[in-house]
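Quick one, tokens below:
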């Protein structure tokens, strides 16, 4: 069994799609939901699907590393970031090397980095007059939006699209591709125990 932990700060529409995608699978399970906000929408999905959840305090995450114990206890093999806004600390990357994925709602390296999240991204894409945008799914390293790309999906943009409309188009592609890329990646890397 490969166990996934999803980290999310917001509504968690991607998290929900990932949970639904793997719901009936016997080889892959969403075993933990982690959020840094106690009223994040993603926690409602955790409840609805009966998945254990953890709300992080900044100190737990950056100083005393107590999140590691929870991840180990749940035998997490892969961490999936889905709208998680805190930078991943080095100790977590060292513990889960090439086992942390993220999705960014633009074609990196454009429109990435600190401060480039949510509507900021789509407003910048609109302002630049791009005719194409789309999600990038990538491995996570110590910098925002910087790791190796696993997939980029090009979504055409109409010149009259508002940033909200661009966001909706990109999100639709995220919902379709993110679970499938996770699935392929999990098949490729196997469980964490299997590698050590
Ligand atoms: C998505 O656009 C994702 O690309 C970005 O954060 C957003 C999360 O949306 N990293 P949701 O909470 O999954 O709806």
């Amino acid at each position: 069994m490969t166990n996934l932990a999803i980290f999310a700060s917001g509504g968690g529409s991607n998290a929900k799609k990932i949970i639904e995608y793997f719901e009936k699978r016997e080889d892959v399970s969403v075993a933990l939901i982690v959020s840094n906000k106690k009223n994040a929408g993603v926690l409602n999905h955790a409840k609805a699907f009966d998945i254990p959840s953890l709300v992080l305090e900044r100190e737990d995450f950056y100083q005393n590393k107590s999140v590691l114990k929870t991840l180990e206890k749940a035998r997490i093999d892969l961490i999936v970031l889905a709208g998680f806004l805190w930078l991943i600390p080095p100790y977590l990357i060292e513990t889960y090397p090439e086992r942390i994925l993220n999705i960014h709602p633009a074609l990196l390296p454009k429109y990435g980095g600190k401060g480039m999240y949510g509507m900021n991204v789509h407003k910048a894409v609109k302002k630049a007059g791009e005719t194409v945008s789309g999600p990038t799914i990538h491995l996570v390293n110590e910098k925002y939006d910087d790791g190796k790309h696993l997939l980029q999906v090009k979504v055409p943009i109409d010149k009259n699209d508002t940033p909200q409309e661009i966001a909706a188009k990109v999100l639709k592609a995220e919902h379709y591709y993110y679970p499938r890329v996770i699935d392929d990646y999990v098949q490729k890397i196997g469980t964490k125990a299997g590698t050590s």
